[in-house]
């Protein structure tokens, strides 16, 4: 993603409040592959493309495109420029043509005993706003004087018409960010974003009576553009392909004070303000895609004595790209994700141990096909962790997390305590109950200092 300066203003959010702009309203639009002037569009076909725009314009960058392979031939009425009007009842669809040529072509091409499909696009009273109607034709009555035909019909759904369904989500690239830490996107497409602050001077997690962690400051912001594709075979109820490209950026500013008054073994603590669900990208009866943004703040803490330690880290990922193949984890990959960070620590009381805060940021996508016939959930999780290990020269106890911790050395720091800090960053992809894979991991040394008693 290419980032440029974009001036915007967001007020400081209330404790654990979430701010976001993620409303998706799909509008049926004619796919650009159709030329409404061509009478050939009157001919029923077993291949049909249905586009839906995320805005009122038929911008291909913001479209969701559904390609259907159908059991029986289909006529897409919106693709016929000479259709003057369409009216529906519970059991009929009446079509008025504006030219005798179109009327005659329909007579010659449409089977008189029916057994094909009509798809309407909010014409007359045939379907709800923002939706299309699907009708099985079981008979036809022609009116030569009015150049109109009345089809005897049965209203059906996507699961009845399609032998296979393939959906492509918008092909959108680009984003905008400003230098205040707020991240937003200003491009058409499936964009999701949120900002929220942690409670100030509140205990975000604790282990009474010996341990508390207080958030002195905490602000988190994230944004993503989502593109993707899936194909599904209806008779076998088998997914043929499913992948998503996720372009993302996030910003975190976290300051935590750890106050430990007695020894205790390593524990992993987590505070979560909840999950933000953007509005669903939904074509009723065909599919729904539910994006979710999840944040959590936590720490790995363990010590053989009292610790009073403060950590502050400001971190941004301005340019992260992920390709997540739900069907094959080996095809999943990422590029970018270079972290930018500043950090500071202060230790007023030390014992051998560690106090290592982390942030988990996840983009999760839940897909439902044909009203629950098939569903799956997956996504990516990015975890930056500020690793802080304290080692007192006189102590022989080593209390550490099983992984991502630094071994105490105490080689040159013989009259004080050693503070070793590093930044660990990992990106994991997953499909719930299927697989999980680490796509990226890096550890950046920050400090190795000796502080005299």
How would you characterize the overall build of this protein?
The chain has helices at residues 100-109, 158-161, and strands spanning 18-19, 27-29, 45-53, 63-76, 83-88, 92-97, 116-121, 132-143, 148-156, 162-169, 176-177, 183-184, 190-197, 202-207, 211-233, 238-260, 264-277, 281-283, 287-303, 307-325, 333-336, 340-349, 353-369, 374-392, 416-431, 435-452. The chain is mainly beta and 453 residues long. It folds into 2 domains: 18-23 and 186-452, no CATH class; 31-156, no CATH class. It has a 17-stranded mixed beta sheet that branches. Strands 17, 18, 19, 23, 24, 25 and 26 form a 7-stranded antiparallel beta sheet that branches. A hairpin with a 3-residue loop joins strand 25 (416-431) and strand 26. The relative contact order is 0.12. Mean pLDDT is 83; it is low at 1-21, 172-182 and 396-408.
């Amino acid at each position: 993603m290419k980032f440029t300066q974009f001036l915007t203003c967001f007020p400081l959010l209330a404790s654990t409040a979430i701010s976001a702009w993620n409303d998706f309203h799909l509008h049926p639009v004619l796919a650009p592959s159709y030329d409404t002037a061509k009478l050939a569009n009157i001919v029923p076909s077993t291949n049909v493309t249905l586009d839906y725009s995320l805005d009122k314009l038929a911008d291909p960058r913001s479209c969701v495109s559904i390609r259907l392979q159908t059991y029986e031939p289909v006529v897409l009425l919106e693709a016929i420029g000479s259709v003057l009007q369409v009216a529906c009842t519970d059991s009929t669809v009446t079509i008025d043509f504006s030219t005798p040529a179109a009327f005659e072509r329909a007579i010659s091409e449409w089977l008189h005993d029916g057994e094909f499909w009509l798809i309407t696009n909010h014409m007359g009273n045939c379907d709800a706003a923002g939706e299309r109607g699907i009708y099985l034709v079981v008979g036809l009555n022609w009116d030569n004087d009015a150049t109109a035909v009345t089809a005897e019909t049965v209203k059906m759904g996507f699961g009845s018409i399609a032998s296979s369904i393939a959906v492509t989500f918008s092909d959108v690239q680009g984003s905008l960010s400003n230098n205040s830490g707020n991240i937003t996107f200003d491009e058409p497409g499936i964009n999701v974003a949120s900002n929220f602050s942690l409670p100030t001077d509140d205990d975000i997690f604790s282990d009474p009576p010996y341990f508390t962690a207080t958030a002195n400051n905490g602000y988190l912001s994230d944004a993503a553009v989502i593109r993707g594709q899936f194909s599904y075979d209806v008779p076998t109820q088998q997914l043929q392909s499913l992948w998503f490209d996720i372009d993302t950026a996030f910003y975190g500013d976290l300051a935590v004070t750890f106050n430990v008054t007695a020894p205790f073994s390593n524990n992993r603590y987590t505070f979560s303000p909840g999950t933000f669900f953007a509005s669903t990208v939904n074509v009723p009866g065909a599919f729904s895609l539910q994006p979710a943004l999840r944040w959590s703040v936590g720490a790995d803490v363990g010590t053989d004595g009292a610790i009073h330690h403060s950590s502050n880290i400001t971190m941004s990922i301005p340019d992260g790209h992920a390709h997540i193949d739900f069907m094959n984890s080996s095809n999943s990959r990422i590029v970018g994700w270079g972290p930018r960070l500043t950090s500071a620590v202060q230790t007023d009381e030390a014992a051998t141990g560690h106090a290592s805060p982390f942030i988990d940021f996840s983009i999760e996508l839940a897909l439902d096909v044909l009203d629950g016939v098939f569903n799956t959930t997956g996504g990516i999780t990015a975890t930056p962790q500020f690793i802080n290990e304290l080692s007192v020269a006189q102590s022989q106890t080593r209390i550490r997390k099983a992984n991502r911790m630094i071994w105490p050395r105490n080689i040159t720091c013989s009259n004080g305590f050693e503070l070793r800090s590093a930044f660990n960053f990992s990106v994991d992809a997953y499909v719930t109950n299927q697989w999980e894979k680490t796509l990226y991991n890096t550890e950046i040394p920050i400090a190795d200092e000796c502080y005299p008693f």
